[in-house]
Design a protein that fits this description.
The protein is of the alpha/beta class. The chain has 13 helices and 18 strands. A five-stranded parallel sheet has the order 2-1-3-4-5, sandwiched between helices. The protein has a five-stranded mixed barrel with strand order 14-15-16-18-17. α8 packs parallel to α9. The protein starts with 6 loop residues before the first strand and ends with a strand.
Length: about 475
């Protein structure tokens, strides 16, 4: 009698980059004979892929682990595996303080999910699952390493060797984003010195995937029916620098945009001083490339940016935005900012608020500063009180709300191509979708209240729509025939 395939349930937390890691692990497990389920109450094995970027993310990860552990008591689960960034940071603490957890898998050892789940690892002569590439790095990364940027000695249980893996186009993946949209991770790690961030310690030095491998994966996904591809990495605008390429992202976009049947192509996230003229011209040149730029600026006051170890100022950023809009007509620009960074004064916050008024960004996210042990900012003095941090965050969001409301109102009467994502989670009376100006999961939506000439819509398909109403962040539209 054949042994029943183990049912494995996944919970993926955090960013799209983490989601791709989950998809890789699911693909590995599926190839090894497991059955993947989205119903944790029926799973034999549960995997929580964690985030530990800021305190809220850590708490969400811990709460989710404990929630999934209940299925070992009252459900079918016999094993709980914790993966991802929380493991890189707190490997020993998880083992010591969470007896519910049976195994841990770090960000650089995704293939270890097989052994953790009790499935046989591939034979020595089996096809390789991950790219093993010659050591290569950017000069910036080598400099940062010599300055201690990637130090992990004080992290109990952290492996001395930084994560180095890169999946490639031969690595199995099981998409969790539906049939029409998918992410492609084109690079891993980060070399930037940002003092508020510990991602380089968690993910390692910046490293690009091979150009041909990215193109091959994109072609495979489109052949499977994917019509929207989103390129991701800690900093996609550095793509190819470690491979000796100049304007590597522009070259990659130009190549991918020529894939037949691909409808939309976008990338996240752009470092402001890496947004070159060639990159913008490439975006403008191809209809397939979404007129959308996610460029996290973090702040606008020069003293704060200097302490963040990022550089720049409001005037420089406004000129960059002006150049983007001049080169790419009808572009939507998204950014994120941090309020309450150590030493941020009322004058600094006023500069940031004035910048947001002047920039009139299409989309804006605001984070309260999180004092992360192991980050460069952790040892800085002049910490801003928590109440002040939150008050500034709310103030900036109110400001952006008024900007967004006017921006959305200006879109009433316009017509767009719309990717329909299915019935709305808010109400079954409406369907929802996105235009090219709305990235998956992070921006507003278009709610559809009129199917026009169609009796029914198909999830994952593109339709033409006309915007009929506007809200603060979302739009309402009707499907039209053209």
């Amino acid at each position: 009698m054949l042994e029943q395939r183990p049912r494995i349930g996944f919970v993926s937390l955090g960013c799209p980059k983490n989601l791709v890691d989950s998809e890789v692990m699911m693909g590995l497990l599926d190839r090894a004979g497991a059955e993947i389920t989205n119903q944790p109450e029926t799973a034999d094995i549960l995997v929580v892929n964690t985030c530990s970027f800021i305190d809220k993310a850590k708490q969400e990860s811990i709460d989710t682990i404990l929630q999934m552990a209940q299925h070992k008591v009252s459900g079918n689960a016999r094993k709980l595996i914790v993966a991802g960034c929380l493991v890189e940071r707190y490997r020993d603490e998880i083992r010591k303080n969470m007896p519910e957890v049976d195994a841990v898998v770090g960000t650089g050892e995704l293939e270890a999910i097989l052994a953790a789940a009790g499935l046989e690892t591939p034979a020595p002569d089996a096809p390789q699952l991950f790219s093993i590439l010659p050591a290569r790095s950017r000069p910036e990364g080598d400099l940062r390493e010599s300055q201690g940027r990637f130090a992990r000695e004080q992290w109990e249980g952290a492996q001395a060797k930084l994560p180095q893996y890169l999946y490639d186009h031969t690595t199995p993946r099981m998409l969790a984003t539906g049939k029409s949209s998918a992410y492609i991770k084109i690079a891993e790690g980060c070399d930037h010195p940002c003092s508020f961030c510990v991602i380089p310690n968690l993910r390692g030095k910046f490293r690009s995937r091979r150009f041909a491998s990215v193109v091959a994966e994109a072609e495979q996904l489109v052949a499977q029916g994917v019509r929207e591809l989103t390129l991701i990495g800690q900093d996609t605008t550095c793509y190819g620098e470690d491979l000796g390429m100049k304007d590597g992202l522009a070259q990659l976009l130009d190549s991918l945009a020529r894939i037949p049947d691909l409808k939309w192509l976008r990338f996240l996230y752009a470092y402001p001083n890496k947004v070159t003229g060639r990159l913008l011209e490439t975006i403008a040149q191809h209809d397939v490339i979404c007129k959308y730029l996610d460029m996290p600026l973090q702040h606008a006051a020069a003293p704060v940016l200097k302490r963040m170890r990022r550089g720049g100022n409001a005037d420089i950023f406004l000129k960059t935005i002006e150049r983007v809009r001049a080169t790419v007509p009808d572009v939507a620009i998204r950014s994120t900012f941090i309020t309450g960074f150590p030493g941020e004064t009322e004058a600094d916050f006023a500069v940031l608020s004035d910048f947001v008024r002047a920039a009139r960004l299409d989309w804006l996210g605001v984070f309260s500063y999180s004092d992360e042990e192991g980050s460069g900012a952790f040892g800085l003095e002049d910490k801003v009180p928590a109440r002040t941090i939150e008050a500034r965050r709310r103030s900036l969001m109110r400001l952006q709300n008024s900007i967004s409301r006017k921006s959305r109102a200006a879109q009433v009467g316009r017509r767009f191509d719309l990717l329909v994502e299915g019935p709305s989670e808010e109400t079954p009376l409406l369907w929802e979708g996105r235009t090219q100006h709305q990235a998956p999961e992070i921006d507003g939506k278009v709610y559809i209240n009129d199917f026009g000439p169609f009796e029914q819509l198909e999830t994952g398909q593109f339709y033409r729509c006309e915007i009929s109403e506007s809200q603060d962040y979302d739009l309402v539209g009707r499907i039209i025939a053209e």
